[in-house]
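Structure (tokenized):
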């Protein structure tokens, strides 16, 4: 972890992820490529990378909280409370501003949304809601994250690191079973939501949780570290991209493909963190990549209205759509996210126990 509290390479990986999402959304927009093969969907892969990173970072933070509870530096209730305060200050202001803007545009008649869209967006239940409009459709992933935040902190702080890691391992087994069950035996209307409703996607986040739980042990395994340094390691991201192309083959994709993606992404994350001095690591830690990674949450929220293949407006034409996405994301980051993060820092500082805790953990 850097002196600023950020974990090297992860911001760069976020930049790669948001680039995958935006580049896919751009397909079919004005002045951009009209189409690509149906199996070429990097947006879902980009979101999956975000999920695995989130599981890793949140678990790292919660494991540190559990250690403080175990040694009596804080209480269970206080640790849970501070976790949720950190999450609320980090995520809610920008997200609810976005929902408020969409609501205003809807009321004024500038755009149209589907019935229930705004309620699902405001309650973080978009991953259970269909049909939904383009304007808020991307919020399904934020809903998955929020549902994870509700469950996982209590699991870690009550069960402890070892048992929580075992529960996350169990999730890696349950996820494929749930996907196959919902797809083949659930209501036909639920099929489009397989891979979005929590039981069918939580194994992606759980994979990051497992990485956080076993990473110290992995660091003691000479064979594993040698594998990370081998040139053959780059077959891992190739396998991840290849598995992402299996979407047209549901049985293989739901049973095996998504699990291959999750594990491969976790391995790539671990290698990127452990070896920031490699060519790949140096690329991820360049200033432009780190900056885009820091901006990725705002970019994910605000690219949707501009990078819109369903619109013929000039604001959705390339490259205007990209420029506007960055301008509005920058405004959100500096005028909404940053003030609330400073407010969070002051609140955490005021309520922090007297015993030194080593800071607030990763800046996420």
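Design, position by position:
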């Amino acid at each position: 972890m850097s002196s600023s509290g950020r974990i090297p390479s992860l911001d760069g990986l976020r930049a790669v992820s948001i680039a995958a999402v935006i580049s896919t959304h751009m397909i079919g927009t004005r002045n951009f490529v009209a189409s690509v093969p149906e199996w070429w969907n990097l947006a879902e892969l980009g979101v999956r990378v975000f999920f695995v990173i989130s599981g890793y970072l949140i678990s790292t933070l919660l494991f540190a909280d559990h250690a403080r509870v175990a040694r009596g530096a804080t209480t269970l209730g206080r640790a849970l409370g501070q976790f949720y305060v950190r999450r609320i200050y980090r995520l809610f202001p920008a997200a609810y501003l976005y929902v408020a803007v969409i609501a205003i545009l809807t009321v004024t008649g500038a755009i149209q949304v589907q019935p229930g869209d705004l309620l699902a967006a405001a309650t973080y239940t978009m991953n259970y809601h269909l049909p939904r409009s383009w304007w808020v459709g991307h919020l399904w992933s934020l809903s998955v994250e929020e549902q994870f935040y509700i469950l996982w902190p209590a699991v870690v702080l009550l069960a402890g690191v070892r048992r929580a890691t075992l529960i996350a391992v169990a999730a890696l087994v349950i996820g494929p079973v749930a996907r196959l069950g919902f797809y083949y035996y659930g209501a036909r209307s639920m099929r489009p939501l397989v891979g979005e409703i929590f039981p069918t996607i939580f194994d992606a986040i759980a994979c990051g949780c497992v990485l956080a739980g076993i990473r110290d042990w992995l660091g003691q395994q000479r064979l594993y570290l040698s594998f990370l340094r081998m040139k053959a390691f780059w077959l891992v991201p190739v396998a991840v991209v290849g598995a992402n192309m299996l979407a047209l083959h549901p049985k293989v994709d739901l049973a095996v493909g998504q699990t291959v993606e999750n594990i491969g992404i976790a391995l790539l994350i671990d290698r990127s963190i452990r070896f920031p001095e490699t060519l790949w690591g140096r690329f991820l830690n360049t200033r432009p990549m780190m900056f885009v990674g820091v901006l990725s949450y705002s970019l994910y929220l605000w690219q949707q209205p501009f990078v819109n293949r369903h619109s013929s407006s000039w604001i959705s034409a390339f490259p205007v759509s990209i420029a506007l996405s960055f301008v509005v994301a920058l405004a959100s980051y500096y005028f909404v996210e940053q003030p609330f993060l400073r407010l969070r820092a002051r609140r955490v500082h005021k309520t922090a126990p007297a015993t030194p805790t080593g800071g607030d953990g990763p800046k996420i």
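Reviewer-requested clarification: The chain is about 70% helix and 0% strand. The longest helix spans residues 76-107.
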